[in-house]
Design goal:
three-stranded antiparallel sheet, N-terminal domain of TfIIb, ACY2 Aspartoacylase, alpha+beta, single chain, 1 helix, 2 domains, AspA/AstE_fam, Aste_AspA_hybrid_dom, hydrolase activity, acting on carbon-nitrogen (but not peptide) bonds, in linear amides
Length: about 140
């Protein structure tokens, strides 16, 4: 499957549809080249591994008491370091990220995840090396 976004629920965006078409076309091009015998050289790619889901700060009644900080909003896949602004309380207090390593948040403030108690997902960045690839006959 391919998920391309972000895109609000119930909204059809031309730019997101165009991205989806491009990635599907690249995938089909790869399959055609691979099946045609093309050899692909080794390569290194960056990947992101999910570490944990992070909830919004809540009071004892389970009500959200802070929102995503404006400096974090729309910064999916960007580095988040210790001390960076994370949440903003309704009183204007900044709640900073407190972590021992840089993380890469994604699915930041996605409406579909409110009911799942998820403000964002913390990921860590890795580099993977793929060996050369070719069709075995």
């Amino acid at each position: 499957g391919v998920e391309v976004g972000p895109q609000p629920q119930g909204v059809a965006r031309a730019d997101v549809l165009d991205k989806m078409r491009k990635i599907v076309k690249h995938g089909l091009d790869f399959v055609q080249l691979f099946n045609g015998g093309q050899e692909f050289p080794p390569c290194t790619i960056e990947v992101f591994k999910i570490m944990e889901k992070v909830d919004y700060p809540r009071n004892k009644n389970g009500e959200i008491i802070a929102i995503i900080h404006p400096k974090l909003q729309d910064q999916d896949w960007q580095p988040l370091k210790n001390g960076d602004p994370l949440f903003l309380t309704l009183d204007g207090e900044v709640i900073p990220y407190q972590g021992n390593c840089t993380v890469y948040p994604t699915f930041i403030n996605e409406a579909a995840y409110y009911e799942k108690k998820q403000a964002f997902v913390k990921t860590e960045k890795f580099k993977l090396t793929a060996k050369h690839l070719r069709l075995s006959v």
